[in-house]
Each structure stands twice: as structure tokens, then as C-alpha cells.
TrEMBL record:
Coiled-coil annotated residue ranges, if any: none
Native organism: Pichia membranifaciens NRRL Y-2026
Organismal lineage: Eukaryota, Fungi, Dikarya, Ascomycota, Saccharomycotina
Name of this chain's protein: Glyoxylate reductase
GO molecular function: glyoxylate reductase (NADPH) activity; hydroxypyruvate reductase [NAD(P)H] activity; NAD binding
Span of domain D-isomer specific 2-hydroxyacid dehydrogenase catalytic: 74-345
Amino acid sequence: MFLKRVCRNYSTGKSLTVLRLGPTRFAQQAWSNLVSKNNVKVVETDAANREQFISELKSGKFADVDFITRTFESFKQTGMMDKQLLKLIKEHTKVKAMSHNGAGYDQVDAIECGNLKIQLSNVPSLVDDATADTAVYLLLGAMRNFQLSSENMKKGQWKTQKCAGTPIGHDPEGKVLGILGMGGIGRTIRDRLVPFGFSKILYHNRHQLPKELEKGAIYCKTPEELFKESDVISISIPLNKNTKHIINEKSIGIMKDGVVIVNTARGPVIDESALKTALKSGKVAAFGADVWVNEPNVDPELISLSNVACLPHMGTHTVETMKAMEEFVVENVQTYIDTNKVLTMVPELKGKF
């Protein structure tokens, strides 16, 4: 911490123009401090869609921009930060770095960023607690039918039926929990759920964790091994070409009958069509999710099923977490000013700058 303060007191003084995409709700003071302590200019877009943003790029409006910060919501203004858009950014700006306000950065082509020599940072760790809390809520809601009971109660069904006619749920005690993806979020989910009395906790990662990080969780070498043994499956993997539709008709087929699935990762890791069939048949007893395919235009049939507990992608939707995330984005800009490198390079680009 002392070294960081020293670096800031002796900032490089280089000028930097930052294009800020998406709203700033809680980090106004952090941005103000950044600008006052450094030779930083902040600009924003007037675009309402991708076409307008590309027009702004080609007009030269952002010709002096060195750094881009973006939020998940900025997708509405730019669309995917794919090869096409990144090449246009490289061609019409001076951008050398980008900071995404979120742990997941599937809206940005990280590999193409590397090819174009654009650094990319995300916000790891700070989202772990809020996302894990959301996963616990959804897991209990799915196992105990809490969302359905609330809906039935609001309809006045408690007056005529026990527990408003809600089917009897299940306790976590004695069940096998499988965590697909044991990064920071997955490990925090595990820590939150240990007191609930699962008989054992399994996990799958590309690589086994050190014993001190496993904390008694049992490593499965393949996702299939985890699918076969788990009563409850919690998903917290990144979305990429290898994980899209990892939950599909085949993988659901090898799961236990009556399995409960919870997803706080990204919607497209699940084939929603296959999931919907399994929920209707009872193969999957219940599903809880905060993330969906084609957000916010979710499948109305899927979320209307009585055995689905649903949230509108609000895993980090707390004042404390959102403020910390926004301020961390500013921290990445400051670190770039001081060192010419972002603070938290995404895994795909580590060691390449």
C-alpha cells in the first residue's frame, strides 16, 4: 500500500484521454480524484446503438482516446467488442488499454485485444461475495420452492391450501453439491454453503486447486464425473467457446434424476431448450438462475415454469459491490498511468505486455 501511494505521489504526468462507456453510479469521487491528480481527460459517447458508435469512431471524435472503460450495460451502445469493432477502435483511436467493469468479460474478444496490442483488464474478486450470496439464495429457492410459494401466497392461495399449495421441497443436508468452476466465485459459494450440511462438495476446474484452496472439496477430473455424482450443481464458469452449452441434452442425461441446477455464470453455458425439456419431465427437479440467453429478452416459457427460480441478472446489484467495482476500474486507469500496464490483466493476456 505504501509503495502504491509513493507511485501516485510521483505520477508520470503523461496525458491520457479516457473514453468512458456506460453509466457511473457511485465512483464519481474516484473519477474526480483521478482527473485532479493526473493529466486526464474523460470523454463519453452520444451513441444509442452500435451503428451510431461506429459512425462516431469513423468521424474522428475519439481520435485522441488512449484508454476505454466499459460496463456490461454499454453493450447497448456498442454491441460486442468483437474483431470488427476492435479493429475500428485500433484504426480510429490511440487506444492501448481497456478496463471492463465486471468479472466476466465475454462481451470483449480478449484474444483479438491481444492481437491488436490492447491491454484488457476486468474486476475479479470484488464480485465474489455478492454473486455467491445470490447463488445461495437461488439454490435454497430452487430446493425449497420458495419463489413459487411467494407467488402462490400473493395470489391468495394460502387461505385454502397448506403453504399456499406449494409442493414440498428438499433440505440441503446430506446431498452432494457439485461446483462447476472453482475460481473466486466458486470458492466463495463453497464457503457459504459448507454450514448447510452437504455430505460432500465436488468441483471441476481445468486444473486441480492446491489443497489449501480446496478446503476439503473433492476434485473431479471431468465435468461428466461431477454431473453423475451431484444432487445439486452450481455453475460459475466463464463463457467461452469451450463452455457454451456445456449443460446440454447429453450432459443432463448423465445427471441424477431430480437434480437441481443453479447458474450464476452466463446464460449461454446452458442449452435452454434442453433444460426446458428436462424441467418439464422432472429429470431436472428445479432450476435457479440469475443469467439467461438473450438477456433481457428471456424465454418467457422457461421463466414461467413452476420449478424455476429466476432473477434478472442482479448478482452484483448492491451499492457496496457496484461502488467497489467502479472504483476498481478507476484503479486500473491510475495503474496504467503509473506503470503503462493495467492492474488486473485478464488471464488470456497475462505475460503478453
